[in-house]
Specification:
Elements (H helix, E strand, L loop, with lengths): L2 E3 L11 H7 L1 H11 L10 E3 L1 H7 L3 E6 L10 H13 L8 E5 L3 H13 L2 E6 L5 H8 L4 E4 L4 H15 L2 E2 L10 H24 L16 H14 L3 E5 L4 H14 L5 E7 L4 H8 L23 H10 L2 E5 L4 H10 L14 H10 L2 H6 L7 E6 L6 H8 L5
Parallel strand pairs: 3-11, 4-5, 4-7, 5-6, 8-9, 8-11, 9-10
Antiparallel strand pairs: 1-10, 2-3
Bound molecules: pyridoxal-5'-phosphate.
Amino acid sequence: MSWTLNPNVVRRGPLPKAVSAIMGRDAHREARAEIESWPGYRATPLLSANRLASRLGLGSVFVKDESGRFGLGSFKALGGAYGVRHVTRGRGGGGVTVTCASDGNHGRAVAWGARMFGCDAVIYLPTHVTEARADAIRSYGARVVRVDGEYDDAVEQADRDARRNGWTVISDTSYEGYMEIPRVVMVGYTIMVEEALNALRAWRPIREYDPPTHLLPPDPTDRAAAQATAGAAAPTHVFIQGGVGGLAAAVIGHLWEALGPDRPVAVIVEPAEADGLLRSARAGKPEASRGSLHTIMAGLSCREISPLAWEVVGAGAHAFMTVADEGVPGVMRAAAGGAMGPPFEGGESGVAGLLGLIEVARDGERRRAIGLDERSRVLVFNTEGATDPGWYGRIVRGGGA
Ligand SMILES: Cc1ncc(COP(=O)(O)O)c(C=O)c1O
């Protein structure tokens, strides 16, 4: 499988201005106030995969488990619904139709947000998205349109139809002339990252400064104190699965914002057949994947990357790697069976970051290249649970994919 260190990574120093313009602290605060007010909001659990850590010879491995997020099964609930909120704020949802392309999870989030904020939703799904995932989207009252093609064909069709019909596109990926809403969607994801940091702070109780979990430090003095204490428990490494790159941008950008130069080493993990971010790292600019896009990790199956996300990921990620589909079922089973620590429901795309970690930790050269050792505190995100329960059940019971 492929692996590349990022020759353009900004190793030292604070958050670059270009990144703070995308993911700034005020934007995060605003998203947090909004999303925490939604019915059913609860921070998702942070689990300590202690068995995995000792098997891999690492200090600790923390898994932020998004499988229960708002009952939607993935972290995408934070971004898509926040995008809908952004366009309906101040004018209500009546008469508004929102639309997007999706590999499944983003469409579900937009459909759920549309129902919450009173607008109509039309979701475009490429061929590889299963009917169970389409049904989940319909269950929120959205209309599903099937596109005979890849994710990127669905993006184009959603954009074309939106122009024709006066609909508003809530996309998780950016493209030329369309940047603001994907930016807002990525800011929504940062809530998950802040929750993880808060949980880590609580893991080793802070003596002098212990912010309530629902509040950010209120002023710069407190913030400095928070950073100092957070440094004691902050992750040293983070492994993040990549599709268009929005998740990775949110994780890297927020950790950079919160921890400054002490931010963790970030490794991006993609399916071998959908490796646009890795190719972009090698080219030093956004490049499309040339893979088949056929992968069990359906949420990560896209050809083009998000140029806006790349602004953050291209500067902030330390390494890029791909993983093969074959490794995924074993990690899903290990997660479900409690072989890594407390059991959790890890979906096909959800465990990709963990799979990347396991492969790097077992490879002496890669391990050394990113300074992974028995003192490392690694953070990963289980970004989805059983978003297609039939498929999940077959894999976890051992029937294969
Ligand atoms: C479960 C899951 N994990 C990770 C991702 C990757 O996010 P992004 O496309 O923003 O890189 C997706 C995207 O749909 C997803 O559904």
